Automatic annotation (TrEMBL):
<dbReference type="InterPro" id="IPR012337">
    <property type="entry name" value="RNaseH-like_sf"/>
</dbReference>
<dbReference type="InterPro" id="IPR050951">
    <property type="entry name" value="Retrovirus_Pol_polyprotein"/>
</dbReference>
<protein>
    <submittedName>
        <fullName>Transposon Ty3-G Gag-Pol polyprotein</fullName>
    </submittedName>
</protein>
<feature type="domain" description="Integrase zinc-binding">
    <location>
        <begin position="109"/>
        <end position="160"/>
    </location>
</feature>
<dbReference type="InterPro" id="IPR036397">
    <property type="entry name" value="RNaseH_sf"/>
</dbReference>
<feature type="region of interest" description="Disordered">
    <location>
        <begin position="16"/>
        <end position="35"/>
    </location>
</feature>
<dbReference type="GO" id="GO:0003676">
    <property type="term" value="F:nucleic acid binding"/>
</dbReference>
<dbReference type="Pfam" id="PF17921">
    <property type="entry name" value="Integrase_H2C2"/>
</dbReference>
<dbReference type="InterPro" id="IPR041588">
    <property type="entry name" value="Integrase_H2C2"/>
</dbReference>
Length: 240
């Protein structure tokens, strides 16, 4: 061995044992257990659909007279049965955190954002049952199921009015590129119920797949993602 050393045991009661002192010496710094508060903070942030921000929900909640009454009732314990009946029946499930109302783990959406949230669910074209299930996982407001059904049923005529006039053509195989990343195929999937899109890029030579999450399909959002992919894998320039 390149080193020579001696081992000496020092019992914990030995005053000359610094390691034992450091492990036992108390700190004067007060500690707080914030697990409950941290969990509520996580629920509040995770329950907001990604197409919205927590700030938008807080601002809309502040301007929503009914939710302001609900927040006051939650904090005081005094409920107006007539005007707040939709909420008083579930008052044991409601809480207030950082300017927003929660029903268990779900965000209570202000009335000004109802249409926006349901439209996101409508755009996913999952069908009534699946859409209601997806939207219930994150948000709630009185009459949410009925509103989702009306939006989805309202979308049927516009879908059924589309006629398939395009002629079917046989699929044609494209020539295989000579090198990786010489030719690529790009497409989008979405929007999903929570507002995201997927940017899907496939190398036509190797069929290697890259997927990036986007919140917009604009060039401003797409170009940085494609630049990141090309920075990782490079590009093949055509030979002159």
């Amino acid at each position: 061995m390149p080193y020579e050393f001696n081992l000496r045991y020092s019992p914990g009661k030995d005053e000359l044992n610094p390691a034992d002192y450091l492990s036992r010496h108390p700190t004067n710094k007060p500690t707080r257990d914030n697990k409950g508060e941290d969990y509520i903070s996580y629920v509040a942030k995770a329950s907001v659909p990604n197409a919205l921000t927590l700030g938008e929900v807080k601002k809309a909640t502040k301007n929503d007279l009914q939710l302001q009454k609900v927040m006051t009732a939650i904090q005081s314990g005094k409920w107006e049965k007539k005007s707040l009946s939709s909420f008083s029946n579930i008052r044991d499930e409601l809480s207030v955190y950082d300017g927003v109302v929660l029903r268990n783990h779900r965000q209570v959406i202000p009335s000004s954002l109802h249409h926006q949230v349901v439209t996101l669910a409508h755009d996913s074209h999952q069908g009534i049952v699946k859409t209601k299930k997806l939207i219930r996982e994150k948000v709630w407001f009185p009459g949410i199921d009925k509103m989702v059904e009306e939006h989805l049923k309202g979308g049927v005529p516009c879908q059924s009015s589309v006629t398939g006039t395009a002629k079917r053509v046989l699929l044609k195989m494209t020539p295989l590129p000579e090198h990786a990343w010489e030719e690529i195929s790009v497409d989008f999937a979405g929007p999903f119920p929570t507002g995201e899109y997927l940017l899907i890029m496939i190398d036509d030579y190797s069929c290697f797949l890259e997927v990036e999450i986007l919140y917009s399909t604009s060039a401003k959002a797409v170009i940085p993602k494609t630049n990141q992919i090309f920075a990782r894998f490079g590009t093949t320039c055509p030979e002159e």
